[in-house]
Amino acid sequence: MAGLQVLEATFGDRGFHVLGFYSNDFGKQGGSDAQIREVTKRYGVTYPQFAIAPVKGPSARPVFEWLLSHDNPGPKTSPMEPSWNFEKWLVSRTGEVIAAYGTRDYAGDDRDAPAFRDNPMVQAIEAALAG
Fold first, then answer.
1. If 0-12 CB within 10 Å is exposed, 13-18 middle and 19+ buried, where does residue 99 land?
2. 121-128 contacts at long range (C-beta below 8 A, 24 or more positions apart)
3. Which has the least CB within 10 A, 11, 38, 61, 128?
4. Rounded Cα gap, residues 74 and 110, in angstroms
């Protein structure tokens, strides 16, 4: 969550926003909306959080139906359907799905570090905001 919060803090004033969608689709993780609120509060998460709901299969929330109706733009190499937590999709201001990232894709949590600015995800966000 820290890395996603850093993205929100870095680019939020330019119109980029992280949206947190939670699901119990990935095994026996459990969790309730109240537990998620407590964890996100503890970690100082300020980006919008959505209630727990399916993100895959026939009961997937509509935003995921829409995301999954697109071809995979990369760099994620697995199918577009989420296979675990913290998968990410970059959507342009005009509604184009420009990138998909897997669970392990991470921009980092130090926006002042050269590795953060050089990260392909950060560069894709910068390009989308410039366009």
1. buried
2. 121/7, 121/88, 121/90, 122/7, 122/10, 124/90, 124/98, 124/99, 125/7, 125/11, 125/16, 125/90, 128/16, 128/90, 128/92, 128/93, 128/98
3. 38
4. 24
| 131 residues of the chain, pLDDT tens digit each | 688 999 999 999 999 999 999 898 887 666 788 888 888 888 899 999 898 999 999 999 999 999 999 999 999 988 888 988 889 999 999 999 999 999 999 999 999 999 999 999 999 999 999 98
Distances (CA, A) of 6 to 71, 76, 107, 108, 122: 28, 21, 9, 8, 11
CB 97 within 8 A of CB 74: no
| Cis amide linkage into residue 75, ω under 30° from 0 | yes
Q: What is the pTM of this model?
A: 0.88
